[in-house]
Every structure is written in C-alpha cells, then in structure tokens.
Amino acid sequence: MKKLAILITAVIFASCSSDLENLNENIKDPLAVPGESLFTGAQKSLVDQVVDLNVNNNNTKLWAQYLQETTYTDESNYDQVTRTIPEKHWSVLYKDVLKDLDEAEKVIAGTTYPTPEQEVLKPNKLTIIEILNVYAYSILVETFGDVPYTEALNIDNLLPKYDDGETVYKDLIGRLTAAINALDETNGSFGSSDRIYNGDVAKWKKFAASLKLRMGILLSDKDAAFAKSTVESAVATGVFTSNADNASYTYLGSDPNTNPIHDNLVLSGRKDFVAAVTIIDVMNTLDDPRRPLYFLPTDDGTFKGGSIGETSSYSTYSHVSAQVEEATFPGIILDYAEVEFLLAEARARLFEVGGTAKDHYDAGITASILDWGGSGSDATTYLSQSNVDYDLAILASTATTPWKEVIGTQKWIALYNRGLEAWTSIRLLDYPLMATPADAVSGFPNRYTYPIIEQSLNGANYGTASSAIGGDEAETKLFWDLN
Description:
This protein has helices spanning 2-23, 35-51, 60-63, 85-110, 116-119, 122-144, 165-182, 201-218, 224-237, 260-267, 277-285, 291-294, 322-325, 336-348, 357-371, 376-383, 390-396, 402-414, 419-429, 452-457, 459-469, and strands spanning 67-69, 147-148, 162-163, 247-249, 273-275, 331-334. The chain has 483 residues and is mainly alpha-helical. Residues 1-21 and 26-30 have low confidence and may be disordered.
C-alpha cells in the first residue's frame, strides 16, 4: 500500500506540474509569424509614414506649404524638436519597416513551402523585399544624410556607425539594379499579402526602374555622369507609362486600416489644418482645374489659404477635399505623373531618355489632372495658358535656370498630398520658392536633424556623422543638394 500511495502521489504531481506548465503557454498568438505577414506589416508601416500628416510623425506637407496649422503652429515654423519628429521618422523606418523586412526575408528564405507552386514564388518575394529595403533606406538618406547602414539592424550592435550618405545612395542604386535583373515576370510573388501591386511582378519591376530613375535624378548636380547612366539605364528597363502603374497602397474602410489622413482629419474629430496660402495663390493664379479636387472652397466660393506660420481660423480658409479625407483614399509612394516630370528634368539635363522636356512636362500635368479626377479637356485648356505652356513659361522665367522653375513648380503642384517627395523636389530644384514662416525657428529645413536619442545613446558615432555632413542643423544641405 505504501508503494501504491507513493506511485499515485508521483502521478498526481507529474500531472499538476504539466498543467502548471501549460498555463504559461500563450495559446492565442502563433509561435511563429509568417514572412508574408511581416512583409504586409512593414509595407503598411512604410506607406503610413510616407503619407501621414500627423504633426508628431511627418511635417513635410507643412514644409512644402500645402497645408497650414490652425492653432498649434510650431511645425509650420520648422520646429522639429518639441515633438521629436526626427526620432519618430527614424524609429518607424528602422524598427517598423527595415527590421520587419529583414525578418520577413529571413523567415521566407528559411521556409520550405508545401507545394512546388508556392516554393517557386520565393525568389520574387525576396527580391520585392529588397526593393522596399532600397526605398526605405533612400528616404533615410534623403532625410538625414549619413545614416547607419552597414552596421544597421544588428541587435548585437546597439551603437552602429553612420555611413557616408553618397556611398550608401550609390550602393542602394546598385542593389536596385540587381533586384530589377533578378525579378522573374513568369512567376508571381506575394499575391494578396502585397497591398500595393497584389503580387504583380511586372509592376514591381516598373516600380523599381522608376525608383531608380528618381534616385538617379537626385544625384544629377553631384555626379552628372553617374546620374546620366543611372537614369538612362532605368528608362531602358521600363518605367511607368500610365496611371495604372502607380504605386498605390490599398487602404480599407475601417480603423486601424484606413488611410492615416482619415484618422487625423475625420476620426480624430480635430480641425488642425487648412490649405496653405502658398499653394492656393499659385493655383489661383494659374486657374488650376485641380483646386476643387485638392481643396474645398470657402463659403463665398473662393479658395483661400492660411498664412504660413500663423494661426489660421478653420472656418475662414479652404480645407482638404472630401476625397483626400476618405478612409480608402490610396496611399501613393510613386506615380506616373512624377515619373514624367522626372523625365522632363532628365531631358532638360540632356540625358538620353527620348522625347522632349515639353513632351514629358505636358504628360506629367495631364497624368496628374486625370488621376485626380479631372478630364482631358481640363488638361488641354490648362496647358494652353501662356503661364503654363512650357515654351512660353521658359521664356517668361527670370530664374537662373528657367527649366528648374517651370518644371519644379508644376511638379510641386502635382505632388500635392505627397509631402516627402515634394520636399525633396523643392530642395533639389529650389522651386517653387517657399514663404518664410511668421515665427521660423530656422531657415528652410534642408534635412531632419538627427534624433535626440542618438545624441544620448550613440554619441561618438553621432558626433562623427554630424561633423561629416557639416553640422547637425536643419539648414545643412545634404551631399546631393548643391545649389
């Protein structure tokens, strides 16, 4: 009996021990996250950060003077520090985008899929991840200058060195070229896990070539020969040829998968933004048919913009249009109109990309008007105006380089709602001229300053990088911004 009692006690103890261990198991969350899910999450984080207008996340629509704040005007006056905007931008791109893409790549590479049909998609999936890696890093370089690159994303190295921005940028272009060559258009990729192209490899190839065009143009003043070969190579590969090619992220109708602009302007219940006087005055002068597509008229039927850097009554000035506020309004990270303006710039720089600067300029304006819901006749009428017609506008310009003013102004109008790329275009072409904010805390920001946390935790590498770029100041021009 004694032996039996001991045996029963042992069984009960073992059973209880097993039950207690089971209580510590998380049965709600998966043990491993599929690489495809990580890719989808990284893609959404990337597009959200690019299209957002929340003043805590992205101030570039204010700096491109598309919008003006109604009450709290710090960000319109170039204050980057109060809300630590650079830190948010840095964190999203490194942690929520690049790190998740890195993990997605590792998981997908290490996964053996159950069927040959699924296994054959793996190379294209990995290549598309590489393309988005290049896109995310290009934004970091264009925003900050020198950034962690060769030592980034390593959890065993919390103090990564910063790499030279120009070196990184050219390396990214090389990676992009390799990715373009690696894509296999005879096979698919992510399917519905891809919210931009639904796994269409041919469209991803066009996107990669168009991104290469954009990056090549950015280096035109710094290294004309390298820029020329990059641009011409991209065009030969095949860039966007219609609005159907636009890199357009599909948002859904309910939170948290709506366009973040809808969150900021509708779900928040806040009234923080009105149209900015800079874009409204230009569009009014040009009688631009996109005004009612971009903005709502005021009660008297006119379009009015708030003064830059000043408080602006919500009831007095134009607001963004209803379509921009829609939950499902697509998140654009690169479009056909931009590509045509880039090609116009390329021809103005005498790069061999076919057509004339005027051809591509006209195509860019037309693509923008059509994409926003205007008509072909709207575009024809607009282009016939003497202050829009490319040749006449060039003759009327008093700028040192007239094509920069003419192309730069129309490109800026077309990039409305795409603050990051508009800000980059303004810095490269120096047009249109931005108004000086009422209480500006710096000159026009040529870059985000480095995150304060980098100064605190990665001080030595931060100091080296700051010295290398010419000082961690908002006004410091980056390596590609020479004029």
